[in-house]
Amino acid sequence: MAYNLLKGKTGIIFGALDEKSIAWRTALRCHEEGARLVLTNAPVAMRMGEINKLAETTQAPVIPADVTNMDDLKKLFEESMKHFGGKIDFVLHSVAMGMNVRKGKHYTELDYGFSQKTLDISSLSLHRVLRTAWDLDALNEHASVVALTYIAAQRVFPDYSEMADAKALLESVARSFGYHYGIRRKVRVNTVSQSPVKTTAGSGVKGFDGFISYAEKMSPLGNATADQCAAYCVSLFSDLTQMVTMQNLFHDGGFSFTGVTEAVIQQMEK
C-alpha cells in the first residue's frame, strides 16, 4: 500500500544492481510513494546488473558514477539537479565492496592495499557524496541521506572481515558530516543497520546461508526483508522523521538487543 509519503520529492539512489538488492527495492518503493528518481551505479556494476530495467519501471534516468571519483559525483549531482529542475530531497547510499573478502583473505592476513580500496569504496564514498552535495549546495533544507550498514560495526562476525571496519567508518562519517549538514541546512544523515539479506553481494560472504538462519532464530520478529528495509528508508526520506539525524538505526527484527532466544538454545541442545 502506498501513502504518497514522497509525493513531489526527488532523490538519488546509489547501488541498485538487480532485483535482490535493497537499493533496487527502495527505488521501487520510493517511486510508488510519489518520488522522482535518478539511478546511479559504477560503470562496471551497470554492465553486470539490470539497472536499465529498473529505470524503465521507475521512469528514472541512469547516470553512471564511480563513487571514488569526485568529477563523476559532481557530474551526477549537476545532471540530477538539471533533470529535476531543482535541488534534491533524499539520497540512498547502498555501496560496498570488500576486496579482501572477495579474495578470500582472512582478517588476520589482510592485504592492506585491498583494505584501502575497501574503505575508499564502502566508507569514504559517503563522505565524497556528502561533500559533493555540500559544495554544490545540492540538497534542499530538511533533505535526508541514508546509508546502509550492518551490526558487524559493533560486534564481531569473523567472516565479515574488513567490512566490519568499513561499516564502522561509514557510521562515523554519517555522524560527523550529519552534525555539520544539520547546522548548515537541517539535512539529516543516518545509517540503517539491516538484517542479513540474500543479495548478490551478501551471498559472497563465507557461511552466509547459515548465518541468515541463525539471525532468524535470534530475532524476535525474524529477519527484516529487503522490501521492509525499503519501507523503512521511505519513512526516513519522508517529512515524518525531520528530527532524526546522526543515528545508527537498527532494522533487524530485534536481533541487535537480543542476548539469546529459546529457538537458539533448543538448536544448541540438539
Description:
This protein is an alpha/beta fold and about 270 residues long. It has helices at about 20-30, 45-50, 50-60, 70-85, 100, 110-135, 160-185, 210-220, 225-235, 260-270; strands spanning about 10-15, 35-40, 90-95, 140-150, 190-195, 250. It has a single domain, classed as Rossmann fold (3-Layer(aba) Sandwich). It is built from 10 helices and 6 strands. The chain has a 6-stranded parallel sheet, sandwiched between helices.
Topology:
Elements (H helix, E strand, L loop, with lengths): L9 E5 L7 H11 L3 E5 L2 H6 L2 H8 L11 H15 L3 E6 L5 H4 L9 H25 L2 E11 L12 H24 L2 E7 L13 H11 L7 H12 L10 E4 L10 H8 L1
Parallel strand pairs: 1-2, 1-3, 3-4, 4-5, 5-6
Helix pairs in contact: 1-3, 1-9, 4-6, 6-7
